[in-house]
Amino acid sequence: MAAYTPVEAIELASRTGAKKGYMRPEAVFLSAISAGCLLSFASASFLIITTSPQLQEDAPGLLKMLGALIFPFGLVIITITGADLCTASFMYTTLAVLHRRLSLPRMLLHWVLTFWGNLAGALIVVILIFGAGGVFAKDPYRSHVAEFATGKQVTPEFHQVFLRGVGCNWLVALGLYLSLFSRDVVGKVVGLWWPVFAFVLCGMDHVVANMFFMPMALWIGETPGLTLGLYIWKGIVPALIGNIVGGSVFVAGYYWFVYLRNGQDDGSGVLVDGVGYQGTSSKRVGTDTSC
Q1: Is residue 276 part of a domain?
Q2: pTM to 2 decimal places
Q3: What are the Cα distances from residue 161, in Å, to 32, 83, 167, 206?
Q4: Which of 1, 30, 44, 171 has a Cα-to-Cα distance from 132 of 20 to 30 A?
């Protein structure tokens, strides 16, 4: 069989959430730093490829499509290497809690560690690589960073950032779920790539990607109205809440309700659902956290 079924894939997602929830806190934090760094490289690549005043005027949709095609490599590398994004944790660990494989305190601890680790990783890249390195020091890149931050952060209202955050992590978490259908790396890449492509193309708000975009604009200092306080209140807060809702409710909650709510975890980690599927045998996640 070339791919897992939807029930098997969501079972794997549940085991992944439990595995992540039982990781050592210092390992989670270091893994999250790595994820923040990797996504920052993807965010920087997006800014560079979308820097074209002529195309911004004549073909803005085409320019967004080019950026959306390149950005997913960051999520792919993070997923393949096992690094920890808080936005992925919102889906994986919520699912494990709903499936009674992980406690609520462990889930919340994982969220806190991944969020701050992602922020640390993003700031490391902003300051040491792109800031001190002067990658965006000259026009047209410098002005494009400021223009992008204005449209992404200064202009939108709080509720708009929140709703775009919901849509963003709905698609990101869906991509993570689809990647689990495949038994090989190529299939995982394809499953992840296109939902991430869609969220970037539609201009949704990913709280970790914004950890690069907004600090980079603050470093350059040419974005009217953008301050640290504005970024925290109208950037981090609504995007974070929206990402939590998108990943935990629209993906983890929905697919748990559809595929796992009427199932049964018999204590061995073997899932038997209401339609007779029996998952692959494993020890109970939490004592043996292999996926």
Answers
A1: no
A2: 0.88
A3: 23, 26, 10, 10
A4: 30
